[in-house]
């Protein structure tokens, strides 16, 4: 069994056991038709569309999870920025109270 690769398309090819030297009868059974496309109803466009449709729920779930994670991270960022600003204000008030300069 060999793997046939032509451009972006590939398929499995069962070969007759012959060699490149011409021995064997040269017949091959392939899942590819004569035009380089998979035989039957499995054109590359059909397969891609089917895979896209089957993966869509997982893609939507991933994006939803990503949005939730991003929202939580944004909320945490806002919290820490507010806490840092508050700490800076408290430090400035203490410096002023005790006469410590920023220099």
Automatic annotation (TrEMBL):
Composition skew (Basic and acidic residues), residue ranges: 16-30
Region Disordered, residue ranges: 1-45
Keywords: Coiled coil
Residue ranges that the Swiss-Prot or TrEMBL entry lists as coiled coil: 63-97
Source superkingdom: Eukaryota
UniProt-recorded name of the protein: Uncharacterized protein
Organism, scientific name: Auricularia subglabra (strain TFB-10046 / SS5)
């Amino acid at each position: 069994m060999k793997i046939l690769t032509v451009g972006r398309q590939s398929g499995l090819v069962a070969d007759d056991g012959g060699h490149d030297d011409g021995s064997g009868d040269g017949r091959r059974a392939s899942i590819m038709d004569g035009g380089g496309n998979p035989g039957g109803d499995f054109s590359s466009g059909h397969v891609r569309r089917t895979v896209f449709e089957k993966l869509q729920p997982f893609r939507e779930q991933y994006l939803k999870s990503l949005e939730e994670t991003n929202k939580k991270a944004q909320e945490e960022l806002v919290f820490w920025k507010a806490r840092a600003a508050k700490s800076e204000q408290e430090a400035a008030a203490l410096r002023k109270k005790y006469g410590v300069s920023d220099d």
